[in-house]
Design goal:
The chain has a domain at 31-172: Jelly Rolls, CATH 2.60.120. The chain has 209 residues and is α+β, with helices and mostly antiparallel strands. It starts with a helix and ends with a helix. The radius of gyration is 28 Å and the shape is globular. It contains 3 helices and 16 strands. The strands form 3 sheets. Strands 3, 6, 7, 9, 12, 13 and 15 form a 7-stranded antiparallel sheet that branches.
Amino acid sequence: MQITKSLTTLSLVTFGGAVFSLMSADVAQAVTFIFNADDSNLSTIVKTVDGITLTISNNQTRGSFFVDLDGISVLAGTPFSGTKTTSFDLTFSSAVQLTSYTIGYIENLDGDESLILSNGSSSSVENAPFTTGLRNFNNQFKVAAGQTISFIGNFGADVSDIIQWSAIEVTPVSVPVPVPVTIPEPSSMLGLLVLGGLGINSNLKKLKK
């Protein structure tokens, strides 16, 4: 029974005569990047957590990022900082899956705002209504190491909207690890079958006596 249960968790793959089992690595733990006032007025924000580096850059049209205790302004109208923040880029140093974000502050929202994140082949559209607190990405897509994620914010009718993220959470992408499995040579397997047959025959003779 134990062998049967174990086999259900393994996939055997043959490569040139060698046999490998693909065993899933341990479940990856989510990594959270927190934004604070130390990140303010930077044209590029670089943060490293658990060996993964997040880089945020190319703020349009403000040039630099406004960040305070409520987080980074991902959508900011002109009354807030004098210039708009409507788009920027994110990259991660390792392959990750977008998980969630935390909204630390909102203001002047009318319910027609939206946020779009895209890596060119996949995208997640975040639609209003927005409230403060944790929110999962609508599409938790995966991105490769160094791949650019474009962020675009849409104000809707009113350009005085403000949305700040206090944190963004991603999950490292796990890659199956090939683990060699020892399989006896054909000659060895034949020998085992012969020995097994002799043992069965010997037991039958004892029973007849």
